[in-house]
Amino acid sequence: MTLAQYWHCFVGIQVREWLRFWQQRTRFFSALVRPLLWLVVFAAGFRAVLGVSIIPPYDTYITYETYIAPGLCGMIILFNSMQGALSMVYDRELGSMRVLLMSPLPRPFLLVTKLLAMGMVSMAQVYLFLLIARLLDVEPPDWGYLAVLPALLLTSLMLGALGLLIATWIKQLENFAGVMNFVIFPMFFLSSALYPLWRMKEASPWLYWICQFNPFTHAVEAIRFALYLQWNPQAFGITVLVAVVLAVLATAGFRPQRTRILSSGGKAG
Amino acid sequence: MKSLLKQISLAAMVGLSTPALASLAYVSNEKDDTLSVIDMETLEVVETIDVGQRPRGILLSKDYTRLYICASDDDTVQVLDLATRKIVDTLPSGEDPEQFALHPNNRHLYIANEDDAIVTVVDVNTKDVLAQIDVGIEPEGMAVSPDGKWAVNTSETTSMLHWINTETFEIEKNIVVGQRPRHVEFSRDSKIAWASAEIGGTVHVIDVDSLEEIRKLEFRVKGVNQDRVQPVGIELTSDGRYAFVALGPSNHVAVVDAKTYEVLDYLLVGSRVWQLDLSQDESLLLTTNGVSGDVSVIDVADLKVTKSIKVGRYPWGVVIAP
């Protein structure tokens, strides 16, 4: 396999993902409604709650809107990754997925490229969200928008791999509502997305420890620090590590033939 | 080429001969009996100086060589030499001095004595008490107009501004304002005076020629209960563009258009924001946040809070020396 072939495949998968995005424009925008509602309605009610402590990466007191914006970026990626990864295995996409996996390129490369492509679309949503948030006085430094890019990509890889793993191994979670209840909501609420960890610690040490072991917490912190031009090696390192471990597990365990449609269609890829 | 080298070496020499003396900010920490010194370049505390008990109001001499400190519980005004940063002298002040103001002649210091309902005027050179003027109950805020004609004292319980003629040391007029007036600030041309009323939640704009109130400002901070909006410190830019008003336990500083008297924005700072001071070039505004024990830095061009710096307990006053 030459590098050119890898590149050709990589571009092909990216283009296909953007085409799909273009066909599902309404889904793209409706997915933005959720984080914006959180920002405008939920955060407004808690506006004065947080102005009691300065926590890194912030240099001064911040409004609650400013605090939860990075968590809401994580939320966009979380929903998209889960939805996308599940659809990779179970959806009507299966036809095209089978075609994709017939490529002679190694399967991990194909899957990771696919996850990256989904991540790109998530990122477009995140940037649009950050743009709207800027109009609502959430104003990170200008270079932060660039610095946050690797953190966003990493987060979508990690969560995409997690989605893939869940979809592959736990057949009972076929419907999205189940994933919402047992994966997305706990991951989102038991993290630093909505409250800083010191607040959690005050409320309950148990909650604090659960949040600490939640990889989503570290992904959100990596996004938060990068957005404010600060380097958080711990959050970044943990996110990388978890992303790699999940990607290895997910690609190794990816068995499309286990799913219903393919069970009669023979081995793919 | 030669001339270029010459220029570079000249520039280097100039650079060496005048080391960049960073401007310093001084913050009085009411509960720690100290001053925190902040480097205005790095925005970090570089020194903490022990001073008298309960330091509150602080101000600079007009030549920027001395810093006067109201050591309220020591019933004295201390003098800090800015070159050595040591206390070099004390001045008689009357009991419990809290705020004071220096006349442009750099000699007459007007001190509000909260417990005695008087204003004491001290000559800082001879240390003579020139006058003690009876004012309303609980005198607090003190200001002298830049042209030197007026000294204004606010009395908290009487809710009045007392206009003292600086030549006769007599009160010429009393103006009733909102409840618990705390602070007065004059425009650079001495034509307008701004007075904050803490409990009233208002700022009163006074025309100095007619000694009449021309405007009353009110503040509404989103998400903050109205009784927590308590205006205290006021700072005006010299170009007459902005007035900044510290809104106490609402934890916000109001930005007011000093021409139209419209409130432009509210900036989130630390808890119980008290007093304010502008840097010499007026690019930065510092606020003392009493309860959270820090100083917030506001970028005046952007009207954004960029940083909060931890200082001692209950920072009260702040001045920035060039």
UniProtKB/TrEMBL annotation, chain A:
Where is this gene product found? Answer: Cell inner membrane; Membrane
The record, for Pfam families, names: ABC2_membrane (PF01061)
Q: Which residues cross the membrane?
A: 36-55, 67-90, 111-133, 145-167, 179-198, 235-254
Q: Which GO terms describe its cellular component?
A: ATP-binding cassette (ABC) transporter complex
Q: Which GO terms describe its molecular function?
A: ABC-type transporter activity
- Reply yes or no: does the keyword Membrane apply: yes
Q: Where is the ABC transmembrane type-2 domain?
A: 26-257
Subcellular location, principal: membrane
Give membrane topology per the record.
Answer: Multi-pass membrane protein
Keywords of the record: Cell membrane, Membrane, Transmembrane, Transmembrane helix, Transport
Family in the record: Belongs to the ABC-2 integral membrane protein family.
Q: What is this protein called?
A: Transport permease protein
Q: Which organism is it from?
A: Marinobacter daqiaonensis
TrEMBL record, chain B:
Q: Which UniProt keywords are given for this protein, alphabetically ordered?
A: Signal
Q: Which Gene3D superfamilies match?
A: YVTN repeat-like/Quinoprotein amine dehydrogenase
Query: Which spans are transmembrane here?
Result: none
Q: Where is the signal peptide?
A: 1-22
- Taxonomically, the superkingdom here is Bacteria
Which InterPro entries is this protein grouped with?
Host-pathogen_enzymatic-act, Lactonase_7-beta_prop, N2O_reductase_N, PQQ_b_propeller, WD40/YVTN_repeat-like_dom_sf, YVTN_b-propeller_repeat
Name the PANTHER family for this protein: DIHYDRO-HEME D1 DEHYDROGENASE, PROTEIN NIRF
Q: Which protein, by its recorded name, is this?
A: PQQ-dependent catabolism-associated beta-propeller protein
Q: Which organism is it from?
A: Marinobacter daqiaonensis
Cite the source lineage.
Bacteria, Pseudomonadati, Pseudomonadota, Gammaproteobacteria, Pseudomonadales
